[in-house]
Design goal:
The protein has 169 residues and is of the alpha+beta class. The N and C termini lie far apart (62 Å). The protein is flat, with a radius of gyration of 18 Å. The chain has one domain: GAF domain (Beta-Lactamase, 2-Layer Sandwich), CATH 3.30.450. It has a four-stranded antiparallel beta sheet, sandwiched between helices. The chain contains five helices and four strands.
């Protein structure tokens, strides 16, 4: 899988211009993704966590052209180390060529070429993961990991309407 801005062949003026244009378009798509997801989450105060995280996964998948996505609640402790760390409130990206060797081996077994995983706890102390899986047509950058993490945390953090203030009298 090629990353945004990674040149496909010899550097010539047309190729460089096309690559810069694609990078600028991707940047605008990511900004729009963040704006739209945060606005949507603002309207989902009473929605279940899974629904909120599904918005994140679906919209992020569209943005990068992910081959597949997953939202799941972590129910056991038999996770690979990087996935366990993400479930604690972190994120990581792995490709067939880069990342943790254990995750690269797991990725190879799936047939995908990349994965971006973000997770954390909801207010009821349940762990969740959002996973995006890429193929040769997907396009995400290493920076996209931070964006997915931030959107995942936003979806996990405010799932309920704010309680009315109590009287101090």
């Amino acid at each position: 899988m090629r990353e945004v801005g990674e040149l496909a062949g010899p550097l010539d003026a047309d190729t460089a211009l096309r690559e810069l244009t694609q990078a600028a378009l991707f940047e605008r798509q990511v900004v729009r993704l963040v704006q739209e997801v945060l606005n949507t989450l603002d309207g989902m105060l009473d929605a279940p966590i899974e629904a909120r995280l599904t918005v994140v996964a679906d919209r992020a998948s569209e943005c990068v052209g992910a081959a597949a996505s997953s939202v799941r609640r972590v129910r056991d402790e038999t996770l690979r180390p990087c996935v366990a760390e993400a479930a604690e409130g972190s994120a990581f990206r792995v490709t067939l060529a880069t990342g943790d060797p254990v995750e690269r081996a797991a990725l190879r077994a799936t047939g995908f070429t990349s994965a971006v995983v973000a997770g954390g706890y909801d207010p009821d102390a349940r762990q969740w993961l959002v996973e995006l899986f890429g193929d040769e047509f997907s396009c995400e950058t290493p920076l996209f990991t931070a964006i997915l993490f931030a959107l995942t945390q936003a979806a996990l953090g405010f799932p309920r309407a704010v309680a009315p203030a109590r009287s101090m009298a």
